[in-house]
Amino acid sequence: MLSDLWLDTELDQRWLAGIADVLRRSGLSRAQLEAVLLYEVAPVVWLNHWNFTGVWGGFDSQWLLAGCRRNQQRGRWHRYKCRLLRWPMTYGCQSEWQQILGYLAEPPAGSTT
Question: Which of 11, 12, 51, 105 falls 20 to 30 Å from 58 in CA-CA distance?
């Protein structure tokens, strides 16, 4: 779902709320979700935002999963490179990511709190 942020298509509020719902159900903290975004997903798909003919229908799930798993195994050097490249890797999806974080800050639908 996070990879959708790099698709060459506009994501509406319903789509972003759906991503937030999936992320909420994952049980990961905000810091963990941001780490997944920056260190696992972004390094695999970020060039799509820099390509004139970017993918818009969805990334191949096997390819994406393999890339994310590789990134999970990488060490400090990988994380350092990701921090250096944070802006070019995430510039095109920062607004959507902030909206998702806003949805995550709200109580879940159907919650009595």
Answer: 105
Terminal Cα distance for the chain, rounded: 27
H or E stretch at 35: helix 30-35
Domain segments of the chain: what residues?
A: 2-105
- Give the CB-side neighbour count of residue 43, counting CA atoms within 13 A: 23
Chain centroid, CA 21 distance in Å: 13
**How far apart are the C-alpha atoms of 78 and 12, rounded to whole Å?**
32
CA distances (Å), 27 to each of 14, 21, 23, 50, 107, in order? 21, 11, 7, 32, 14
pLDDT in tens, 59-113: 999 999 999 999 999 999 999 999 999 999 999 999 999 999 999 998 876 666 5
